[in-house]
């Protein structure tokens, strides 16, 4: 990527194609627009392009107006490639691939959302770099482009001036990270709050939350219980206490929970607490004592041992090493 001077405003070009995922385009667009609303200076000037220009239809049926890619003139600050179920077909468009490679030379940074990483790789822009993509195509990226070091569990990955993100909503996290990189955390947080983003996930946060890593229970009391565990990790989440909330015996509760979610209550509680702790460690300045208490570990020593046993790292290493990261680990034990 080039070292072109920062445009004023910052020109953001989002690349789309027929069948693109609409949220891959619209999510980042809204983040940049919200940043402008909260006073980003220089502001962002966004455009959506395709090879032919005109109206194209996203996979959801949303019709998106685009400019012809060839009409983009002047320095591009941020080149962003969206993804979608038709990414592989788009990667066969040699004109698009050549345009990406050429435009990237003068762009300050190059980014992708979701499976858009396949297009970057096709253009040779990920050679020798760390990258991520939607979890479902990580293996495809790794097998078709072996020079790319694929990191499967990350929401987004930055390798120098190339940023890649996981699937769909991770594009919002990526755009917020770009805003933070340009204008600082206060403006990015203001944009996130206005967009009612549940949490601005740091790079190391896994693509799939602990709640999504298990089967959705059929019983409403169990669904409510999963939400309670996520929202109140500091509560009494022992198996007897959880069984009492569901008006079941411990044995019946353990059996039903395992049958409907595929894991044990203790394993799910541990995964949820670990994930909350990871987020707080990376995204806040709270002390380890406060985090251990907030996340239900009780003591720093207990949290430290759990991190080492399950994640193979420590809270201190996680806070001090921005390239760390791991997926939620939920043990799938046989029900006793």
UniProtKB/TrEMBL annotation:
Chain intervals for the UniProt region annotation (Disordered): 313-336
Swiss-Prot/TrEMBL keywords: Transcription, Transcription regulation
Transmembrane spans: none
Top-rank taxon, per record: Bacteria
InterPro entries: Class_I_gatase-like, DJ-1/PfpI, Homeodomain-like_sf, HTH_AraC, INH-QAR
Domain HTH araC/xylS-type: 223-321
CDD domains hit by this protein: GATase1_AraC_1 (cd03137)
Gene Ontology MF: a single term: sequence-specific DNA binding
PANTHER family in the cross-refs: ARAC-FAMILY TRANSCRIPTIONAL REGULATOR (PTHR43130), HTH-TYPE TRANSCRIPTIONAL REGULATOR RV1931C (PTHR43130:SF3)
Protein name: AraC family transcriptional regulator with amidase-like domain
